[in-house]
Amino acid sequence: MNKSILLTGGTGYIGSHTTLELLNNGYEVVVIDNLSNSSRESLKRVEQLTQKSVTFAQVDVRDAEALNQVFENHNIQSVLHFAGHKAVGESVEKPIQYYQNNVAGTLTLCEVMARNNVFELIFSSSATVYGANAQSPISESMPIGATTNPYGTSKYMVERMLMDLAASDPRWRIATLRYFNPVGAHRSGQIGEDPNGIPNNLVPFVSQVAVGKLDQLQVFGNDYDTTDGTGVRDYIHVVDLALGHIAALRYMDSHQGFEAFNLGTGKGYSVLEVVDAFEQQSGLNIPYTVAQRRPGDIAKCFANPEKASKLLGWQAKCELAEMMRDTWHWQSQNPNGYDQ
Ligand code: WQD
């Protein structure tokens, strides 16, 4: 049996783009997903684009027996763990779901991995683990844990758990990848982000205004200490992010223990700069009003991406214009996402 990479949550936004890049780089891929917040259609499109096939099983990471079966049926070399809930606001209302899915789910996954002698894990973490007081540019050596919502805390708790795991047994090789703000879509416009309901994040919101599904953007605050007063973030093209996972896989093949990496560009853009770049790429006007600051938001958040550059040999390449071009390409071709 050939060795495969297992992706949990592989039909989601970042998982589907990573599946595509893995296939294009010659990896065999097994995807599991409970399809609670994603569509099987994304993988069908990945298969069309790559002309390669993906093994898929509808499995929830909390289901230890079903998960074990996946490890018994395939020769899994490494696990990329994307599966998890990701909406900040929802996590405040439903903390049990977030800790169940994100924390208990990861614990079950690790237990089943160890049972099957698989010890290489790449975890989808978030810049949110640095908390609200971190000064940008943010380095991996800065403290983590001052999180402000259950979503962020769940990512932090998993990181702590994985550190302890790596310290307990030298066979573990664990990389935690702290994503900044993933945006954009595959160049083909065939796969992209397909949020449920009204988007919480800036770029999906803007692109739904562009296709007429939403009336106007609310800019959450223009009195921050930034160039134009609106919040500054480190937007990273999802394909660059996907390639970061491949770089991390290669690195972990020859490094044991636990390592954290920021995946960001190192550059920050304000809300209004993002809107402007989107307007230029789409040729459309995006109406907006300025609203109150969103609770929990900070003025600036961007990465120091040097560690990933030095150790993984990986750097984000796409500029904001390309991110907005590809977002628009996907959204305009798929105004209802995967729901045709
Ligand atoms: C970006 C900027 C907003 C929406 C969050 C999570 C993080 C990660 C990614 C992932 C901010 C402003 C937004 C809108 C606006 N989660 N904005 N109007 O807040 O950096 O990060 O998503 O899985 O953990 O915290 O991203 O896209 O929500 O906001 O003005 O309608 O856009 O205030 O300055 P954020 P975002």
TrEMBL record:
Keywords: Carbohydrate metabolism, Isomerase, NAD. GO terms for molecular function: UDP-glucose 4-epimerase activity. One of its GO terms (cellular component) is cytosol. Its EC number is 5.1.3.2. CDD domains: UDP_G4E_1_SDR_e (cd05247). GO terms for biological process: galactose metabolic process. Residues 6-327 form the NAD(P)-binding domain. It comes from the Bacteria. Its cofactor is NAD(+). It catalyses: UDP-alpha-D-glucose = UDP-alpha-D-galactose. It is an enzyme of class 5 (isomerase). Pathway: Carbohydrate metabolism; galactose metabolism. It holds the Pfam family GDP_Man_Dehyd. Belongs to the NAD(P)-dependent epimerase/dehydratase family. Homodimer. This is UDP-glucose 4-epimerase.
